[in-house]
């Protein structure tokens, strides 16, 4: 789930923040407080406006629905997660370490929102929901996530067959989503169960990729590529966000 922030040159002054930008940020921050304390479903736009000390009409001007507020959260989260992943990729060359490190970074970035993330699952899981990561509205954030996992694969020392390399980023991104949903619903201390699943999953994936390079593995590889291609090619075209 993000637009990148412009690079600021050393010594350059920050652009002044307008009153409208401050109001928008206050509405968003109040919405996040309510989502985390009351849950997504129970929170209303009127509750958000009251918390932010603005009228409801003004809150709708900046965020036409709760879904737009959630998209703002996803954009911020995606940007933060990707930025935090850069040192992990720079410090590791093995596929297992890079993949596990990036997904651990995802968990760390999401950690303050553990309860809130769980409350969104029922809505986001619906195929009709614009909050679903496979929806048209998610196209930009999905592309950013897949691009991150392309960097995970591209920079590793493990050899990846060329045809598999094209589909591997999407496969790794999909695996990361499954692990994130496990993490959301994991109430063990420090989500230890999910971390055990993560450790076993990355070892399994790395092993399968090694096997895919072996003589005679072409048929298995072509089947895997076919499945991932069919899933990826069936995804809807993008939009500018929730309608």
Question: Key terms for this structure?
Answer:
single chain; mainly alpha; Arc Repressor Mutant, subunit A; Tetracycline Repressor, domain 2; 10 helices; elongated; disordered N terminus
Structural commentary:
The chain folds into 2 domains: 44 residues, Arc Repressor Mutant, subunit A (Orthogonal Bundle), CATH 1.10.10.60; 167 residues, Orthogonal Bundle (Tetracycline Repressor, domain 2). The chain is 67% helix and 0% strand. It contains 10 helices and no strands. The two termini are 17 Å apart.
What's the short story on this structure?
This protein has 243 residues and is mainly alpha-helical.
Which strand-content bin applies to the residues?
under 5%
The end-to-end distance, rounded to whole angstroms, is 17 Å
- CATH homology-level superfamily of the largest domain: Tetracycline Repressor, domain 2
Supply the number of helical segments: 10
Low-confidence parts lasting 5 or more residues at pLDDT below 50?
Answer: 1-10
Mean pLDDT: 86
What share of residues is helical? 55-70%
CATH topology heading of the largest domain: Tetracycline Repressor, domain 2
Our Rg estimate from Cα atoms comes to 20 Å
Largest sheet: none
SS content category = mainly alpha
In the CATH hierarchy, what is the architecture of the largest domain at level 2? Orthogonal Bundle
| CATH class descriptor of the largest domain | Mainly Alpha
Topology, number of strands: 0
Shape: elongated
The total domain count is 2
What is the element string, with H for helices and E for strands? HHHHHHHHHH
């Amino acid at each position: 789930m993000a637009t990148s922030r412009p690079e600021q040159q050393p010594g350059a002054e920050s652009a002044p923040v307008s009153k409208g930008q401050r109001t928008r940020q206050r509405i968003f921050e109040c919405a996040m407080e309510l989502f985390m304390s009351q849950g997504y479903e129970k929170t209303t736009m009127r509750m958000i406006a009251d918390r932010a000390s603005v009228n409801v009409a003004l809150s709708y001007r900046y965020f036409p629905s709760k879904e737009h507020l959630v998209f703002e959260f996803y954009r911020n989260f995606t940007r933060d997660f990707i930025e935090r992943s850069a040192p992990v990729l720079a410090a590791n060359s093995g596929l297992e370490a890079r993949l596990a490190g990036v997904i651990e970074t995802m968990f760390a970035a999401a950690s303050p929102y553990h309860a809130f993330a769980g409350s969104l699952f029922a809505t986001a899981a619906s195929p009709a929901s614009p909050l679903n990561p496979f929806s048209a509205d998610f196209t930009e954030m999905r592309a950013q996530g897949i691009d991150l996992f392309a960097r995970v694969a591209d920079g590793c020392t493990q050899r990846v067959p060329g045809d598999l390399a094209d589909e591997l980023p999407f496969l790794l991104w999909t695996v990361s989503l499954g692990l994130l949903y496990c993490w959301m619903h994991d109430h063990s201390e420090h989500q230890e169960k999910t971390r055990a699943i993560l450790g076993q999953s990355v070892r399994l994936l790395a092993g399968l990729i090694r096997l895919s390079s072996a003589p005679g593995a072409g048929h298995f590889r072509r089947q895997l590529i076919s499945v991932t291609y069919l899933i990826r090619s069936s995804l809807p075209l993008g939009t500018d966000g929730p309608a």
